[in-house]
């Protein structure tokens, strides 16, 4: 039954080759793009984890099983849920959590509200930060974890790639943005890179990276 639904959903999509004429770009700009292409898989992996906490495990199992149809569906939907049909689960038997991968799967609204209301004032900024997730620790208690810690290895790789790209940029706003964003990924404070992005006036490249 699910196989039929998966095939039906896949049949609604057609491959499209997206091309771009880069001949007018400077050598520096082309080199920056080549470096930044390495960031795609990293940001995809973070997105998968944020969409559903079980996604990495599910994709690993699909890859090992050799089920090409289910793997294609998973990659298309970034998870086992059919985004075209009210998030119906077509791979395994999962229920998509209301909080996606940002909160424990079983967390209820009442528990979340009680946690926020009872949290110490010093922890509240981390709890409500747009750059944190809430986990349940080994004692069963809720606690915030900032992106730079939750996705530590991926964040460090992404930061390093942005630093490499900044190396090829000429002195100016774009170079400043790339360096600031690389630093801000490690601190979870994006004020400097947001300001630098607004000031970017590069005629060839407009880069968005990070949350």
Structural class, by secondary structure, is: mainly alpha
User: How are the strands of the biggest sheet laid out side by side?
Assistant: 1-2
The number of helical runs is 11
Biggest sheet, open or closed, and with what strands and sense?
A: 2 strands, antiparallel
Taken as a percent bin, the fraction of beta residues is 5-15%
Shape by Cα distribution: flat
| Percentage of residues in helical conformation | 40-55%
Name the helix and strand elements from N-terminus to C-terminus, one letter apiece.
HHHHHEEHHEEHHHH
Low-confidence stretches: none
For the termini, the CA-CA separation is 37 Å
Q: What is the rounded Rg?
A: 20 Å
Query: Quaternary arrangement of the chains shown?
Result: single chain
Question: Could you name the key traits of this structure?
Answer:
single chain, 211 residues, mainly alpha, two-stranded antiparallel ribbon, two-stranded antiparallel sheet, 11 helices
What does this structure look like?
52% of the residues lie in helices and 7% in strands. The protein has 211 residues and is mainly alpha-helical. A hairpin with a 5-residue loop joins strand 3 and strand 4. The longest helix has 17 residues, at 152-168. It is flat.
What topology emerges from the helices and strands here?
Elements: H1 2-10, H2 27-36, H3 40-51, H4 55-65, H5 68-77, E1 81-82, E2 88-89, H6 109-118, H7 124-127, E3 132-136, E4 142-146, H8 147-150, H9 152-168, H10 173-187, H11 191-198
Antiparallel strand pairs: 1-2, 3-4
């Amino acid at each position: 039954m699910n196989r039929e639904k998966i095939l039906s959903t896949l049949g609604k999509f057609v491959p499209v080759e997206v091309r771009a004429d880069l001949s007018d770009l400077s050598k520096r700009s082309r080199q920056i793009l080549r470096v930044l292409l390495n960031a795609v898989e990293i940001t995809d992996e973070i997105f998968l984890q944020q969409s559903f906490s079980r996604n990495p495990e599910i994709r690993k199992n699909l890859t090992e099983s050799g089920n090409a149809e289910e793997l294609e569906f998973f990659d298309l939907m970034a998870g086992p849920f059919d985004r075209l049909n009210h998030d119906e689960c077509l791979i395994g038997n999962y229920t998509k959590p209301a909080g996606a991968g940002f909160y424990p799967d079983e967390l209820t609204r009442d528990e979340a509200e009680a946690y926020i209301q009872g949290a110490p004032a010093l922890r509240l900024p981390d709890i409500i930060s747009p750059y944190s997730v809430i986990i349940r620790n080994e004692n069963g208690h809720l606690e915030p974890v900032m992106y730079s810690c939750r996705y530590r290895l991926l964040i460090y790789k992404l930061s390093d790639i942005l630093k490499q790209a900044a190396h090829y940029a000429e002195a100016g706003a774009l170079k400043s943005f790339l360096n600031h964003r690389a630093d801000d990924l490690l601190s979870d404070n994006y004020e400097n890179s947001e300001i630098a992005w607004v000031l970017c006036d590069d005629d060839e490249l407009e880069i968005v990276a990070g949350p």
